[in-house]
Design goal:
Layout lengths: L12 E10 L4 E8 L5 E8 L3 E6 L5 E9 L4 E5 L2 E3 L7 H13 L1 E13 L8 E12 L7 H4 L2 E6 L3 H6 L6 H13 L13
């Protein structure tokens, strides 16, 4: 997906990619570029299909997080539910709804966008759509994959987010951003009443 007009880099040109590795989810390429003065250069780039992450907020003003093992860092992280956009033709909102069912075992009556973000643009083109989910109803979880079968759902008051970040219990970037944006979006509506319209 090309960048929005206000983020395009005049003078720089992407000349093409040479595939170095292809996995089940990502590609590693050597990407070639031209600088404004014509100098050519290459960068190692991870191509990613994109992802969603969703902040499920209960009517008790708490959020449902998952404690999940992350192999790349060999540790458990406390995160908002998230997943790769790996189903052809599925909208980001539909992916968010599916991830809520798979990981947390809830259906959301309302799923509204918060922001689109690039996770690590220094080496990867992964773009994640963050959503806020409210009006939650429990359903049977449908874990997909080994990590999800072993994950734990943790309910945390939104009011505790600052303390969890300060204590190092929340270290995942998209989780921290999603929680802060959700809290801002729901300001004045927590603990009763309807959230603002999308």
């Amino acid at each position: 997906m090309p960048p929005p007009e206000d983020r395009q880099a005049p003078g720089f040109r992407h000349l093409g990619d040479r595939l170095c590795f292809e996995g089940w989810r990502i590609q590693l390429v050597e990407a070639s570029f031209a600088a404004p003065d014509g100098e050519r250069f290459t960068r190692d780039v991870v191509r990613h299909p994109g992802a969603v992450a969703v902040v499920p907020v209960t009517d008790r003003a708490s959020v449902l997080l998952v404690r999940q093992y992350r192999g790349p860092i060999d540790a458990h992280l406390l995160e908002i539910p998230a997943g790769t956009r790996d189903v052809d033709g599925e909208t980001p909102q539909a992916t968010a709804a599916r991830e809520l069912i798979e990981e947390v075992g809830v259906r959301a009556g309302v799923i509204r966008p918060l922001v689109d973000m690039y996770n690590s643009p220094g080496f990867c083109d992964e773009r994640t759509s963050l959503f806020l989910a409210t009006d939650l109803e429990p359903c049977a979880a449908e874990p997909d994959g080994i990590e999800e079968r072993h994950m734990e759902v943790v309910e945390v008051p939104l009011a505790d987010v600052d303390g969890l970040v300060a204590s190092g219990q929340l270290v995942d970037g998209q989780t921290i951003l999603g929680l802060l944006l959700a809290r801002e979006a729901l300001a004045g509506h927590l603990g009763g009443g309807e959230p603002p319209s999308p």
